[in-house]
Structures are given as structure tokens and as C-alpha cells.
Design a protein that fits this description.
Keywords: Glycosyltransferase, Signal, Signal-anchor, Transferase, Transmembrane. One of its GO terms (biological process) is cell wall mannoprotein biosynthetic process. The chain has 406 residues and is of the alpha/beta class. It has three domains: 247 residues, Spore Coat Polysaccharide Biosynthesis Protein SpsA, Chain A; 68 residues, no CATH class; 46 residues, no CATH class. It binds guanosine-5'-diphosphate (GDP) and manganese (II) ion (MN).
Length: 406
């Protein structure tokens, strides 16, 4: 975090070195979502913008109604722009063709989350490669993305844009989670082929998104492992190896069960060198959860990313699959950014839908640190009678969940 605890905001704003940034909130939304929009704005204003007065840009593929505009205006004294997204940025070029219909319907039949909602595909495509080109957004250097129905739990007493700028940061997140595989089966392949064709020099951020099988299965790794085992003088049965790997090598967090099996096989057969390391990479499905973003507009509005988006368009993945803007942003950022360019807003308490980030969830604070897989376990039990918050609280207190179901 840039600061521990609260800052005296009046003093902060009056400091001679403080510079207000050319920044805005950005929200794409529909007239029908007014209640959720109000909820979000109340939270944003109360926790942050009552002091900082950054403007808002609301975007919609249909004109905002008078009611929507009046209600929204009544919630802030900051400047507001209501912007229309034109049809050419919103619609798919061939959405009335049988092939398009077939792919979208098929995603519905296969139970892919939001797969059969054409509007959801449009939203993902728009946020992936078009929102930052809209003139209403492009005039700014920084943006903070918000959505209807989000909640900020803690006061943000400093200016995140200014602090990011000062620290040389370019993209900030609060939540990092895994994508559902079947929404993006070919996204990583498309991305790698873009990298090869254009000879992209990847930033170090790339490493955050790969299952680094090549490192683990490469020559050095296998050799060191074989040496270590030979000293043990044990019979190298498969079971022994699996057990040994789990006990001694699982400390490398990237080792999952599947990988352990694979390493064990390779060690037993001494399968040699992985030739092309890049070709061995796989997407670990992690991504910055993009309904919250604080970033420079030019992390996307640049030659490499724009070309990347056009390339993805040419693959048809925004409709043949359901590529989300979150994994597209993450992989796209990794084409140009280094890990140091990213800021983790660990101090911003944030909730959207059932997913929450609480700054207290770290070691040394009163609540125990909970692995994100545990959250998934908690939140996936959707059919229960307890609210998600109640379940989470119970889990924090007792270490288990008893929600009245078998
Ligand atoms: P989820 O968070 O992935 O479930 O996606 P949402 O349904 O919240 O959509 C993401 C953002 O895009 C939200 O800000 C929505 O208000 C907005 N959005 C989604 N679909 C549409 C649409 O068809 N038109 C407009 N104008 N906004 C949309
Ligand atoms: Mn949402």
C-alpha cells in the first residue's frame, strides 16, 4: 500500500507537491441498472470522491434517460459526462449470420456462463478493445473503472492516481482470480501466435499468467531432482515419487496434482530437455478482475495492444468463444508491462457480486489469511440458506462452515 492507515486528507490535498490528475471514473451501464448505479456512486462518493471530486464518464449503447441522468447528477457535485457508444463499436460485424447465431447458441447449450447472451459478448469486446478509444475517455490520462453494485468498505484518503504516477505505476487491481477455462479455450493460443508473428518482447508481467511447466520440467530441474533422489537410495516406484514430490517439492506453489504426475513420469523415464520453452507454456487462467481497474489509458491505447485487439478480433473469439475483457486485458498488458508497473491496491476494501477483497485478510491482522481457493469453496456453495457474508464470517471464526445443509 502507498500508506498504512488513514491520511489527513485536507493536509494531503493542500500539500504543495500534490497534483490533481487528469483522471475520471468510467462506467458502462444500462438505464435499467439505475439502482445498482446509485448504490455504487453512494459508496464511491462517501469513501473517496467527496474529497477528490474526480469526474465520471457514463457510457451506454443506448441514450441515457432523463431520469437516469437526473438521479445520477443528484449524487455528486463532480462533473459528469453521459456518452453514447455508437453502433459500430458495439455491434459485431456479422451478428446476423447463421454462423454467429450457431456459435452463440452452442455456448448456451454447453452451459458456458453468459455464453448465449449476445449483449454480454458485446460488453466484453467493448471493454477489451474499444472503451479507451471513446473520445469521452480518451481525453483523460487515467481512469478508474466502476460498475453497478459495487461496494467500497474503507475510506480512501489519498489520491490513487497521483500516488501511482509518483511511484511509476501503470495499472492497479484489488482482486486476482482464475477464469473459467471453457470461456477462453483458445485465447492463450491466439495470444502466443500474436507474440510469435510480431516478435513481441514480453514484459516480466507475462510470468504471472503462465503455468511454468517448462521451468519445472526443463533439464536443470530434472537433473537436480534426479541427483537428489539418487542420494536417497530408494526404490523409485511411481508411488514413492509422487509421495516424495508432494512432500518436498510442493513448496513450489505452481505444482498441482497433474503436474506432479507428469514430473514423476518424466523422472522415472528420464525424459529429456524441453526444446522450445515458449511452446511449453500454458495459461494458468489468472487475471486481474477488471470490474475494478485504476490505470493509465495508454496501457491499452498503444500500438502493441491495439494490434493485439485487432488480431483477437480476427480470430473471432469474442463470439465463437466468450473471451472476457478481464483475461484479455491481463494477457494484453503482459505484452508490454513489467511486474513493477502493476500496483496491488491491497488497502482498498472491495466487493462485487459474491467476491470480496478485505484488507484485513493478511497475516498478522486479527482475521486469518485465507487462501483464495478457500473463498471459492465458500462462495461456490450457492444453494445454501446462509448469506455469503454469514458463511465467510463463520469460516473466519470457526474454520468451518455449517450452513444447515448436508
Ligand atoms: P459481470 O460483472 O461479469 O457479471 O458483468 P456485468 O453484467 O456486471 O457487466 C459488466 C459491465 O458492463 C457493467 O457495468 C454493466 O452495467 C455493463 N453492461 C453489461 N451489458 C451491457 C449492455 O448490454 N449495455 C450496456 N450499456 N452496458 C452493459
Ligand atoms: Mn458486474
Amino acid at each position: 500500500p502507498f500508506f498504512e492507515g488513514c491520511v489527513d486528507t485536507a493536509e494531503y490535498l493542500n500539500h504543495k507537491k500534490y497534483e490533481r490528475q487528469n483522471a475520471t471514473f468510467v462506467m458502462l451501464t444500462r438505464n435499467e441498472e439505475l439502482d445498482g448505479v446509485i448504490h455504487t456512486m453512494r459508496s464511491v462518493e462517501r469513501r473517496f470522491n467527496q474529497w477528490f471530486q474526480y469526474p465520471y464518464v457514463f457510457m451506454n449503447n443506448e441514450p441515457f434517460t432523463d431520469e437516469f441522468q437526473e438521479r445520477v447528477r443528484s449524487l455528486t457535485t463532480a462533473n459528469i459526462t453521459f456518452a453514447l457508444v455508437d453502433e459500430s463499436s458495439w455491434n459485431f460485424p456479422k451478428e446476423n449470420t447463421p454462423l454467429f447465431q450457431h456459435y452463440v447458441e452452442s455456448q448456451g447449450d454447453r452451459g458456458i456462463m453468459y455464453g448465449n447472451m449476445v449483449s454480454y459478448h458485446k460488453m466484453c469486446r467493448f471493454y477489451s478493445g474499444l472503451f479507451y478509444k471513446h473520445p469521452a475517455v480518451r481525453q483523460y490520462e487515467w481512469y478508474w473503472r466502476i460498475e453497478p453494485d459495487v461496494e467500497f468498505f474503507c475510506d480512501l484518503t489519498y489520491d490513487p492516481f497521483f500516488e501511482m504516477k509518483k511511484a511509476g505505476k501503470k495499472y492497479g487491481f484489488t482482486i486476482f482470480i482464475k477464469e473459467i477455462y471453457w470461456t477462453v479455450p483458445n485465447l492463450f493460443r491466439a495470444t502466443r501466435s500474436f507474440i510469435k508473428q510480431n516478435d513481441i518482447k514480453l514484459g516480466s508481467l507475462w510470468k504471472a499468467f503462465i503455468k511454468n511447466r517448462n521451468v519445472l520440467l526443463g533439464d536443470d530441474y530434472l537433473n537436480s531432482f534426479v541427483n537428489e533422489l539418487e542420494e536417497l537410495n530408494e526404490e523409485m516406484t511411481h508411488e514413492f515419487l509422487i509421495d516424495y514430490l508432494k512432500k518436498n517439492w510442493a513448496r513450489e506453489k505452481v505444482i498441482d496434482d497433474e503436474l506432479i504426475q507428469e514430473i514423476a513420469h518424466r523422472v522415472r523415464r528420464k525424459v529429456p530437455v524441453v526444446e522450445d520453452k515458449f511452446d511449453q507454456e500454458e495459461y494458468n487462467l489468472c487475471h486481474f478482475w477488471s470490474n475494478f481497474e485504476i490505470a493509465r489509458v495508454d496501457v491499452f491505447d498503444n500500438e502493441v495492444y491495439n494490434k493485439y485487439f485487432e488480431y483477437l478480433e480476427s480470430w473471432g473469439g469474442f463470439w465463437q468463444e466468450r473471451w472476457g475483457d478481464a483475461p484479455v486485458h491481463s494477457l494484453g498488458l503482459a505484452l508490454t508491462l513489467n511486474a513493477e508497473d502493476i500496483h496491488y491496491f491491497r488497502d482498498i476494501g472491495y466487493q462485487h457480486t459474491t467476491i470480496v477483497h478485505c484488507p484485513n485478510n493478511k497475516e498478522g491482522k486479527q482475521l486469518p489469511y485465507v487462501e483464495s481457493s478457500k473463498y471459492t469453496e465458500i462462495f461456490e456453495r450457492e444453494s445454501s440458506r446462509m448469506s455469503v457474508k454469514e458463511k465467510a464470517l463463520q469460516y473466519f471464526k470457526t474454520g468451518k462452515i455449517d450452513d444447515g445443509w448436508d
